[in-house]
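Researcher: Next entry in the queue.
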Amino acid sequence: MSDDPRDLLELAVRLAREAGELARSGRQRALAAVGSKSSPTDPVTELDRATESLVRQRLAAERPGDEVLGEEAGSSSGGSGVRWVLDPIDGTVNYLYGLPQYAVSLAVQCQGRTVAGVVRNPESGEEWTAFAGGGAWRGEHRLAGSAVSTLDRALLGTGFGYDSAVRAEQAAVVAELLPKVRDIRRLGAASLDLCFAAEGRLDAYYERGLQPWDLAAGELIAQEAGLLVTGLAGEPAGAAMTIAAPPDLHAVLHAELVRLGAAGPA
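Model: Structure for this entry, 266 residues:
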């Protein structure tokens, strides 16, 4: 088994395409069995589980020593030092409602460092990829992020948690930010938001509450496009806060989010 990031990315892309087609073709079956996780507004479908199971089965056959961390089934054991981080359907609410804004997100980490990642939208066929040191790409188009450097010109992406108290805090931050920016979009899939920021479809993106499977592939793609991806006040990107933006815009957005206490109560 090769641990070269290029080879790992090639496998990740193949698996994301197969998983995405399963999710896309099985949507009607998914509608028949919808459950919930952290709250009644946090859905999970049969196809979330089936898509994750497919990727796990393929990896068990091709790379049996690797660990897999997935949103639905948690972490498996593995002694190779390679970990795959999977969100089988990022944007399940969009998926349920027939909104074509969901993705399969798959990243590969070696010794704790993300070295390759792919985000694929099964509806549009768009696919974003990166490996460490190789740049970020959508198809044959290399990504370089936005040239916007001031908040008043910035189109921001964000998202909201499923807990009602957290949503109230996030809404208060949006209310303060909205008069200061070009506009705000809430598209419903963090991995795609990160890729859109990498491509410049969004000037920047921030969100509280992201989990490793939401973040791993999109973070690498954004970083390889030249964006800074951090948390607040020197912390890494993660559950407390994730900010992805070109360096100049990142500085002003970060300062504003710190001022607004966007990570929530201490």
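Model: The first strand starts at residue 34 and ends at 36.
Researcher: Noted, moving on.
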